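Hi both,

Apologies for the delay on this - the queue was longer than expected. I finally got the 2-oxoglutaric acid-bound model through. Below you'll find the protein sequence and the ligand SMILES exactly as submitted, and right after that the structure tokens for the full complex including the ligand.
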Amino acid sequence: MTFKVLISDPLSEEGIQPLEAADNIEVVVSTDLSPEQLAEEIGKYDALLVRSQTKVTKEIIEKASKLKIIGRAGVGVDNIDLDAATEHGVIVVNAPDGNTNSAAEHTMAMLMSLARKIPQAFYALKNQKWDRKSHVGVELKGKTLGVIGLGRIGAEVATRAKGQRMNIIAYDPFLTEEKADQMGVDYGTVEDVVRKADFITVHTPLLKETKHLINKAAFELMKDGVQIVNCARGGIIDEDALYEAIVNKKVAGAALDVFEQEPAVNHKLLELPEVIATPHLGASTVEAQENVAIDVSEDVANFLSGGLARNPVNLPSVPKEVMRKIEPYFHLSEKLGTFLTYLTEGVIEEINIYYSGKLAEVEVAPLTRNTIKGLLKRHLGEHVNDVNASFLAEKKGILINEHKTNTSKGFTNLLKVEVKTTKGTRMVAGTLLNGLGARIVQVDTYSVDFIPSGHIVFIRHKDQPGAIGRVGSLLAEQETNIATMQVGRSDVGGEAIMLLTIDKHLDLDELNQLNQLADIYGVTAIEL
Ligand SMILES: NC(=O)C1=CN([C@@H]2O[C@H](COP(=O)(O)OP(=O)(O)OC[C@H]3O[C@@H](n4cnc5c(N)ncnc54)[C@H](O)[C@@H]3O)[C@@H](O)[C@H]2O)C=CC1
Ligand SMILES: O=C(O)CCC(=O)C(=O)O
């Protein structure tokens, strides 16, 4: 059987040799297809290879009746509709390591150009102006670089910046103080980083959590004259807030490789002399392009020949027999993981998953992966899936223990997840009620009973007459309808909890008002 592979973005010729060399593969390179042409053509192909230009939308995937695999020659998969691919059984693979070095080097090039105003000085000189006065820079030596997102690229940037004798302060949800110490960087919260840094560089994926992470409020906390670098994804920095902060002289300069909308031509930030920019060139080196093309080509060739993909980004297939038994618990296991991400503080060190009752009799590894996916996805992004969840957790140094027990507390099946972090241990348990679906039945030591879905508010408070009434009245004032309410307490007059499911999302203001009520210790808004 011969498989047809379409390459729709420019990829390194050397890099695609693993595909060209395979006997069972025919490669078609067509890099100027319009979205309409791609939709028309895609039905003929078994595999599609892209960089970031081709938008692999739901519409394209729906037309791809033979498509088995999409290869992204790079890291970010935000140009591919992962849900649509998963829904249509198309595996998506990426090349997470091949361009790390190039992206880190580009970040350093931008940082140094920014500090010394090299692009501006060159532009003036090209326009016959020998202007030395306007182009006085600052040294990097002795300055503090704030790194937000200390993953592959962030860590490489930190290492290089230390070579420039900069001090590094970093925030990453998976960074512990101990790990920071080992890496020779200072550990801080996002707030610490933005307050203390002279230069700030972001290296996170673009997620719901990181969209506009650097916003007006963050700029206000920064030092006067701070300089900003974004070689990760447009949208991590709020472009309007950045524009305002530069015009107001809070920010002395910004170096941008990426924009909220690309291509970014006629962008208002590009009119400011303090801004230097490149057109998404972080991974544009001969070496990176060869590396990423080789990585995805090998993965695609291997997968089409019946092998396993090394860097899958979405769901793999689970054997049908196993799937039939565990499928009903999938929703519950992921929701338990997601729920815990809202309760835990500090860095996750250990995850214990307890399966009891009927659950102790089945193959539970896919459920464990699914629970871990729920725990990691909020911070690591959509590329966390059942295949890579355990691997990513291990890479972050998280210990995972699976336990099968007989103590199901009277439930026919019980799934309990306990997470140990640098700041304590939190626990949540759920069950599948025959015919009624999933329920969360325990949070820490409190017995509860609610459906794990929608808008949930978790409130810790003092067990005191009036506390519940005050919350109810304030929510009514905020025109928030309460659908269900659970209360529990450890002992009379001690700490108690309220768990409410409500009909709308609470904004920050509304949450703050709840937090300020008498006898309330903490309020968390949870979206499941
Ligand atoms: N400009 C370009 O051409 C290139 C851009 N990229 C982009 O660079 C970014 C980083 O890539 P990698 O380092 O390979 O990814 P990575 O997955 O190794 O690292 C991302 C890090 O961000 C952290 N993170 C997640 N949420 C966070 C939050 N709220 N605050 C702080 N940290 C958070 C994660 O824990 C993780 O350690 C991605 O957005 C990627 O798409 C990557 C290559 C080239
Ligand atoms: O293909 C490219 O050049 C973009 C690289 C990139 O942004 C990524 O790998 O996330």
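Main takeaway for now: Residues 75-76, 96, 99-100, 103, 148-154, 171-174, 203-206, 209-210, 213, 231-233, 257-258, 280, 282-283, 379-380 surround NAI (ligand 1) (CB under 6 Å).

I'll put the files on the shared drive as well.

H.
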